[in-house]
## 1
Amino acid sequence: MTVHIILFGQLADITGVDKITVENSLDTDSMVKSLQNTYPALIQSTFVIAVDKKIISSNTLLTDQCSVALLPPFSGG
């Protein structure tokens, strides 16, 4: 299974990339653990996850070719 991840703001700065493709992540929890193993600085980062353009609040199953976004905290003005 292939999952496409888009990173925004400081998360892209931390990883040095704004797009990542991962294989074999069955759910968002396993995806985050995999990313944290590859990019340890993400462990200290705060972000929300959107799956197929919908913000999620709990572990979510991922489907093949789904799109995931990691969104850092936003401030408005």
Note: DSSP finds two helices and five strands in the chain.
## 2
Amino acid sequence: MLSRTADHLYWMARYTERAENLARIADVTNRMSLMPQSDSDLEMAWRATLKIIGLEEPYLARFERITPDSVLRYLVFDRENPASIYNCLRAARENAHAVRGTLTSELWETANTTWLEMRAKDPDSVGPDGMSPFFEWVKYRSHVSRGVTIGTMLQDESLRFIRLGTFLERADSTARFLDVKYQMLEDRDAPPDEAADYYQWSALLRSVSAFETFRRVYRDQITPIRVAELLILREDMPRSLHRCLKEVHANLSAVSNARSRETERRAGELHASLKYGRIEDVFEIGVHEYLTRFLDRIYDLSNRINEDFLVPTLA
């Protein structure tokens, strides 16, 4: 496969997944902001959201204060923010258009329709009361894209690069969700509030479609160590780090070449550490330290995949 084709397929998938993950974290923060709380707690929650996706500094460079309305506009509709949902869906469509002949007609129509519908939306038409339905729409369009991809694409290298992009992006997002949540718990000054903690952990689980799964697996109280185990080490949890790296390693193996052997080895090593790891070891290291190391390794894999398979970035 040509590097340019692989590049467009890979980034089409990453941008689609990125838009969905952004919708998930913005939705859960928006819902939690409706709870009775102080202005400082509200600001901390939205600051954490910006921190999760690495946009705290760019946001503060343009806006004086962190408010729910301004952050939502920045994350969703801002055309100057390259990581907004608007620009993610635009970029996904542009990459799909560049390889339209490689995609099935159904997959192209899905990407194109999603963009056309997104382009017609704005803060005024959606409104404050329409944000949750809007986030559900973003997630739904991502679900449709994945379903159409699996249901219509030939099981060849094209599909492998799409899946590779999807699961690398998902691994990065899940790790960031967990990391910021644990940092918020460690940094707070107020004494633990069992009711508030339950709601926040429930909201986190719902943000990754894992609330019902948690109840089915553990059938007990929601605790930080169990949430971490589910989202880090459970192979059968679709958005866990373990599941994501299993898919990354499998798809890398399917498209491997002589140049990518070291990349495949590193992906396999990271997958093995999750497959045979214990949650007690994660907590012994420290959740923040563990997830920071994981994100560094994901970043390294992304760079190596770019060098091994995709279009070289001009200096």
Note: Residues 25 and 49 are 7 Å apart (CA to CA).
## 3
Amino acid sequence: VLPALDVCLSCGAWLEDPENPERAFFNRASAGLFCTACRRSDSWEMSLKSRAIAAEMLKTPVGQVSGAWSKETAADLRHFLVQRMEEAIERRLITAPVLEAS
């Protein structure tokens, strides 16, 4: 369900260069991340820390995912995942605003 989080969906630029990590952006209509150059006007940024946790979640059982999350990282991931789910089901989630209030 989740797209690759280490490359730009548009140009294929590597976003995870350890020497110079690229900023990454997502929007509702696309199932991936975009670099700064390919970013769309209706997009949100996904932080480097959020991308690292998301990548860990894809490879690690949930019970073993590191617990070092900040509120900002959790909000960042939640926003990204809500966008992905809404795109996949082609509807708005009624419960998404409740999650944001938590």
Note: The mean pLDDT is 85.
